[in-house]
Specification:
By secondary structure, this protein is mostly beta strands. Helices cover 0% and strands 50% of the residues. The protein has an 8-stranded antiparallel barrel with strand order 1-2-3-4-5-6-7-8.
């Protein structure tokens, strides 16, 4: 079962802007496209903050094996999350929501 961690809107610039929410964290995020520096480098950088941005993660474009849909595989870190990265998928909604939301950040807990 996937859990929604955030709602995002794709901007004309190619950025995604939205809010990530957990039980302890509510953060405004910008997911900004970047030029890849190498084959394994991210396609996006994730920034937090209003006005002054600081980097909290990265994202890689992926294609779903079954549906062929493109999504972003996000890796986000913050002291509030402890030593672990939060991994989420940014997926496009079939139709935008009334508030302009076009994408959801989904998280699936994994058993260790």
């Amino acid at each position: 079962m996937a859990i929604t961690l955030g709602t995002f809107t794709k901007q004309d610039s190619g950025d995604f802007s939205g809010i990530l929410k957990t039980l302890n964290v509510t953060a405004n995020l910008i997911i900004h496209p970047v030029s890849r520096q190498s084959e394994n480098a991210p396609d996006y950088r994730v920034y937090a903050g209003n006005g002054q941005r600081y980097e909290v993660g990265a994202g890689w474009s992926q294609v779903a094996k079954t549906s062929g849909e493109t999504y972003l595989n996000l890796k986000i870190a913050a002291p509030e999350f402890g030593p672990n990265w939060v991994r989420a998928r940014l997926v496009k909604l079939e139709t935008p929501q009334e508030d302009g939301t076009t994408h959801l950040a989904l998280w699936e807990p994994r058993e260790r």
